[in-house]
Amino acid sequence: MEPLSSSEIRVLRYLPIHVYPVAGLLEDDQPLPESNCGFKGDAESVASLKGIEKNLLPYWLRRHPHHDLNHMASMGQAATLVRSYAEKHDPMALNVFNPQQSRWADC
C-alpha cells in the first residue's frame, strides 16, 4: 500500500471519525449516550469526563439513590470523584467504567 499524499491527508483531517463502542454494552433501559458534538453512541459519549458526567453517571446514580456521589454539589464534581470510588471497588462506580460487567455486578 502506498502512503497517502498530502492532499489526501488534508481531506481526511476533515472527515468525522466516530466509533460506536456502546453496542451491547448498555443496560436495556439505558438511553443511548450523546457526546458534546451531538453524536450518539460514539467513544466520546462514554469515555470522556463530560460523557461520564452527562450520560453514564446520572443513569447509575438514579439506580443507586443512596450512593455518596448523589450528595455532591454537582454532577461534575461527582464525575471527577467516581474514578476514586471505582479504584476502591465500589460496585456502582465499577458499573460506570466497566459496562460489560454491569449486568453481573453485585450492586
Characterise the protein shown here.
Helix content is 44%, strand content 0%. With 107 residues, it is mainly α. It has one domain (19-101). The longest helix has 15 residues, at 49-63. The radius of gyration is 17 Å and the shape is elongated.
Properties at a glance:
mainly alpha; 5 helices
Could you report the average pLDDT, rounded to the nearest whole number? Answer: 77
Largest sheet: none
Structural class: mainly alpha
Query: Which stretches of 5+ consecutive residues score pLDDT under 50?
Result: 102-107
Helix content: 40-55%
Oligomeric grouping of the chains: single chain
Task: Give the CA-based shape.
Answer: elongated
| Helix count, DSSP H or I runs of 4 or more residues | 5
How many beta strands in the DSSP annotation?
A: 0
Number of domains: 1
For the record, give the distance between the C-alpha atoms at the N and C termini, rounded to a whole number.
50 Å
Order of helices and strands: HHHHH
Please report which band the strand proportion falls in: under 5%, 5-15%, 15-25%, 25-35%, 35-45% or over 45%.
under 5%
Q: Compute the gyration radius: what is it?
A: 17 Å
